[in-house]
């Protein structure tokens, strides 16, 4: 609280008796009091003395108290000062409205009781204290939110880097030695692949929940056949189901179900629902995915299991953040308790709803996702993307500070026939990237010394800007992608990346054109 002895009050009144009596009462109460008899003097004293409260008569010789109040609130140096309007004339509702609109906090009628004046000043000071504390708390929360975002971005990068190295090594092992592995070793490799994939999804969910629950993401919408989304999600879930000895069934419509949605996010919805069903289903349970179109142009997708079910109280809170069933089975399956929260937010962002129903413990659960269908649902023209592997075409500079990831990807790229030079940091990359030396530069962003953004910006200012710049990084938020594009990257890939995806990207790159990069040319024209 603002202590009375430390609070400064500016008393403004051109009537000597009223000025004396008001100032006397305020000083008796322990306030430090400044005085002014005109509006101009009040503004000057307010700037010099920075009072906490201005007790301001509305009738002054040079300007009205309303105008003084308006000017105080318009000046950034005095806008936080509280104002109490006083008047010796009858106060109408209209006058009160004028004063409040000018920025006053309260209105007093003269002559007022000294105790009323002191009580009003105290009340205004308490309100001012609360407002200051609220603003300070808001600033602290905003700073904490910013630090949390920075921490999550760093955490995602640090987790994805080792995951990328592990995933790459396992994929290479599968490509090189799949025929020579024993059945036991092949099974062990499959376990590593599945667990790396599981860890990657956990990292993605951890980062996504912060962005999605605060609306810091954007859907990349397009016309999609929901059946295709469901088939992809089912294909991803089958290995986990088989590992846990679960039976996976499907009952999907034969006709396409066209929706306006984000392919990646919708696959995330159904993958999370299937993972949730598997997590809470004991061995031998049946999980059924069904879909049907309603007469109201909506498609309803159900994920039904015969697992442990839900008590009524859990059905109310199952979509809350970090909600998990208090069972040994749930904890043995792991998870962060955020998958269903993501499902709810993503479905609602697509204009749909998600619901759960269970008859009780031991009787299974059914999750239902309802999405609007496109009214004009004519099948778009099919587009078949052909990717042909290109051998020995690119001269590649690979920049990554993780030696395992750097060595593994370099080996794979050379196996594909490319010429590869490696660098461990940004300074080394800049020293190697002489004009015309490379066709492709694959660049990590979280590098020591110079960040990948800084390296890309420097490269785009050189004659070496003819090279294709690809960001291969653990930073995958929308703002990270936007920043990499601004820095001059042509593509942004998030670790861990499947080898087939890297091969597809390299196969689709166009021929290198020597000369200034298009983004650099555009900047030159704008300059």
Automatic annotation (TrEMBL):
InterPro entries in alphabetical order: CheY-like_superfamily, HATPase_C_sf, HATPase_dom, His_kinase_dom, HisK_dim/P_dom, HisK_dim/P_sf, Sig_transdc_His_kin-like_C, Sig_transdc_resp-reg_receiver
Molecular function, one GO term: phosphorelay sensor kinase activity
Pfam annotation, one family: HATPase_c
EC number: 2.7.13.3
Catalytic activity: ATP + protein L-histidine = ADP + protein N-phospho-L-histidine
Domain Response regulatory: 8-125, 395-510
Root EC class: transferase
Residues modified to 4-aspartylphosphate: 57, 444
Signal peptide: none
Domain Histidine kinase: 154-375
Keywords: Kinase, Phosphoprotein, Transferase
This protein's name: histidine kinase
């Amino acid at each position: 609280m603002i202590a009375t002895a430390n609070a400064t009050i500016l008393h403004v009144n051109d009537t000597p008796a009223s000025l004396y009596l008001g100032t006397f009462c305020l000083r008796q109460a322990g306030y430090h009091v400044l005085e002014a008899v005109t509006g101009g003097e009040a503004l000057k004293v307010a700037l010099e003395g920075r009072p906490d409260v201005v007790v301001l008569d509305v009738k002054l010789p040079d300007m009205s108290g309303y105008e003084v109040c308006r000017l105080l609130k318009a000046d950034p140096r005095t806008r936080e000062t509280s104002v109490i309007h006083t008047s010796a004339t009858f106060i109408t509702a209209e006058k009160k409205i004028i004063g409040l609109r000018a920025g006053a906090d309260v209105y007093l009628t003269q002559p007022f009781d000294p105790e009323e004046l002191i009580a009003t000043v105290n009340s205004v000071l308490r309100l001012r204290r609360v407002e200051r504390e609220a603003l300070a708390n808001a600033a602290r929360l905003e700073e904490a939110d910013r630090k949390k975002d920075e921490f999550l971005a760093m955490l995602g990068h640090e987790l994805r880097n080792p995951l990328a190295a592990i995933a790459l090594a396992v994929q290479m092992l599968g490509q090189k030695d799949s025929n020579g592995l024993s059945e036991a070793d092949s099974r062990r490799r499959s376990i590593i692949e599945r667990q790396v994939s599981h860890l990657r999804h956990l990292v993605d969910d951890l980062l996504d929940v912060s962005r999605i629950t605060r609306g810091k993401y954007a859907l990349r919408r397009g016309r999609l056949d929901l059946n295709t989304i469901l088939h992809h999600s089912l294909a991803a879930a089958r290995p986990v189901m088989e590992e846990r000895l679960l039976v996976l069934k499907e009952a999907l419509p034969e006709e396409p179900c066209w929706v306006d949605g984000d392919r990646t996010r919708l696959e995330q919805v159904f993958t999370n629902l299937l993972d949730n069903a598997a997590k809470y289903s004991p061995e031998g349970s049946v999980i059924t995915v069904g879909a049907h179109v309603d007469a109201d142009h909506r498609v309803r997708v159900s994920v039904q299991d015969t697992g442990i079910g839900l008590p009524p109280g859990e059905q109310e809170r199952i979509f809350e953040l970090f909600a998990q069933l208090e069972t040994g089975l749930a904890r043995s399956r792991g998870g962060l308790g955020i998958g269903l929260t993501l499902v709810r937010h993503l479905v609602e962002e697509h204009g749909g709803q998600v619901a759960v129903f269970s008859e009780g413990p031991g009787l299974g659960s059914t999750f239902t996702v309802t999405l609007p269908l496109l009214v004009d649902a004519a099948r778009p023209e099919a587009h078949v993307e052909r990717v042909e592997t290109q051998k020995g075409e690119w001269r590649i500079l690979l920049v990554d500070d993780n030696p395992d990831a750097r060595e593994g990807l370099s080996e794979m790229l050379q196996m594909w026939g490319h010429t590869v030079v490696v660098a461990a940091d940004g300074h080394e990359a800049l020293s190697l990237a002489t004009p015309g030396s490379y066709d492709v530069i694959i660049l990590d962003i979280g590098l020591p010394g110079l960040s990948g953004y800084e390296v890309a910006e420097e490269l785009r200012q050189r004659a070496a800007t003819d090279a294709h710049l690809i960001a291969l990084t653990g930073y995958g938020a929308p703002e990270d992608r936007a920043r990499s594009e601004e820095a001059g990257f042509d593509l942004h890939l998030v670790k861990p990346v499947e080898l087939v995806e890297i091969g597809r990207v390299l196969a689709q790159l166009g021929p290198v054109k020597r000369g200034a990069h298009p983004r650099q040319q555009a900047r030159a024209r704008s300059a």
